[in-house]
Amino acid sequence: MPKLVVRSFAISLDGYSAAPGQSQQAPFGRDGLRLMGWAFKTKVMGAMFGTGGGEEGIDNDFMAKANDHVGASIMGRHMFGPPPDAADPDAWTGWWGEEPPYHHPVFVLTHQEKPPLAMKGGTTFTFVTDGIESALQQAFAAAQGKDVRLAGGAATVRQYLKAGLIDELHLVQVPLLLGQGERIFEDLRGVEDLYECVEFTPSPAVTHLRIVKKAK
């Protein structure tokens, strides 16, 4: 049965997944990129960015599994962009250059109607204006029997959590404090009855948490 999954989603010790002050130079907000330091050191990320090298081990193993059996993704408007300081918002094609790392259909939640945007490498961004359930239905259809990955950001993950639509989350808790920003666990009364933590795996850099929907 295909699932809606969140994978390799980094959060700080105080629960933030992004810092305030997002800009074109700071996609994760001011100093928010520190949340991804563990990932940039892995062999998987070295291969993704063409830099080579990188470390193997627990963190790399989790990164390598992030797109296993994934046929489509969903993300929120802020994860796609444009940031507040974009020079030409209408020309914005995302944070990832001409060839985004997804290589499958991506559905972007937004209030602005836009035609689908086909990029190099097999990624096509489709902009969905009629809500989270419509995006999920379209993503499952596009995934053709595979899982759908919920890429972020925090507000989007929170919406799907609140609706009880996420089947599994892999969160990466990074040992730093941000103090402010965006959280996924905010105003979610009742979520404790829907989900449980079934795996707690520390590495030298971070802690990997796997949270799944409770069986009915």
Q: Reading side by side through the largest sheet, how are the strands ordered?
A: 5-6-4-3-7-1-8-11-10
Q: What is the CA-atom radius of gyration, in angstroms?
A: 17 Å
- Shape, please? globular
Give a short account of the largest sheet: 9 strands, mixed
* Top CATH class: Alpha Beta
Low-confidence stretches: none
Estimate the helix proportion, in percent.
Answer: 10-25%
- Number of beta strands: 11
When the domains are counted, the total is 1
Distance between the termini: 16 Å
Question: Could you please describe the fold and organization of this structure?
Answer:
- With 216 residues, the chain is an alpha/beta fold.
- It has a single domain (4-19, 29-86, 103-213), classed as Dihydrofolate Reductase, subunit A.
- It contains 7 helices and 11 strands.
- It has helices at residues 37-40, 43-48, 58-65, 77-80, 132-143, 154-162, 191-194; strands spanning 4-12, 16-18, 70-76, 105-109, 117-118, 124-128, 147-152, 168-174, 182-183, 195-202, 207-213.
- The protein has a 9-stranded mixed sheet with strand order 5-6-4-3-7-1-8-11-10, sandwiched between helices. Strands 2-9 form a two-stranded antiparallel sheet.
- A hairpin with a 5-residue loop joins strand 5 and strand 6.
- The longest helix is centred in the middle third of the chain and has 12 residues, at 132-143.
- The protein is globular and about 40 Å long.
- The two termini are 16 Å apart.
- The model has no long low-confidence stretch (mean pLDDT 94).
